[in-house]
Amino acid sequence: MKETARVSLPALPSVLLAILSVQGGAALAKGLFPLLGAATTTSLRIGLSAVVLGLVVRPRLGQLRPAQWRAVVPYGLALGLMNFLFYLALARVPLGLAVTVEFIGPLGLALVGARRWLEFVWVGLAAAGIGLLTPWSGRGLDLGGLALALAAGGCWAAYIVLSRRTAAVVPGQQGVAIGMLVALLPVLPFGLASGGFQVLTPHLLLLGGLLALFSSVLPFSLELHALKTMPTRTFSILMSLEPVAAALSGWLVLHEQLTLGQWLAVGCIVAASAGATLTARHPAPAVGGE
């Protein structure tokens, strides 16, 4: 009997597709905000992602030891808050800028304990990007939205640290599936209070399913597939393209325009992120961002 040929996507296209999927999902989410609100959209995305992962992974909640719960609960809370804060920011500032500012979180984590002169170059580039984004005149960009994106970036940095701890004590994809369930806890009360679920229709539920697919399920699967063969350093450098992909997605899908100064800010922070990863002693992949 002839063996069925298996089609396996190479690592590089997998990462690029994951980036496009995440940013396309973010654009879809922003389109749902006027109908459902940011809180309900976040709840819908995380809830449906948890359902899909639960069906695929079938997590054994009753078999977790106390030490494993102590790892997975903070991990899930960081995941939920990261997504919620990012969507709140996205409701107030353009997609490309929200992702750019959020990227300061993992960038700052990569530069903690900087000692070499080259590392301070990346700090300077990131600072220049922040300076270019700041509306010094007091007009223009929403400062509250930028602050929310920065808070989401802080949660992203915490998520990276906590995901390492969870992966070390919870086998396979159990930690991710359980963490997604926990991620719903800090978000769902806001989603219910906002009243967005009251206007939910089958059409909106379908869009929520697509959001969960493009923002969580598909990119996560593609990233894990790529990490099987791609060096961590290469993966992390490619993930630095997220802000550029976000800006382009915002322009193409949401018709959001960035000024020249804002594009320069995106470029500065992307260069700082890629440079910090390239020169880091032990780079960590920033999997599972917004």
Automatic annotation (TrEMBL):
Transmembrane domains' residue ranges: 39-57, 69-89, 95-113, 120-137, 143-162, 174-192, 204-222
Pfam families for the chain: EamA (PF00892)
Top-level taxon: Bacteria
SUPFAM superfamilies from the UniProt entry: Multidrug resistance efflux transporter EmrE
A cellular component term, taken from the record's GO annotations: membrane
Signal peptide: none
Keyword annotations of the record: Membrane, Transmembrane, Transmembrane helix
Start and end residues of each EamA domain: 145-274
Name listed for the protein in its UniProt record: EamA family transporter
Organism of derivation: Hymenobacter polaris
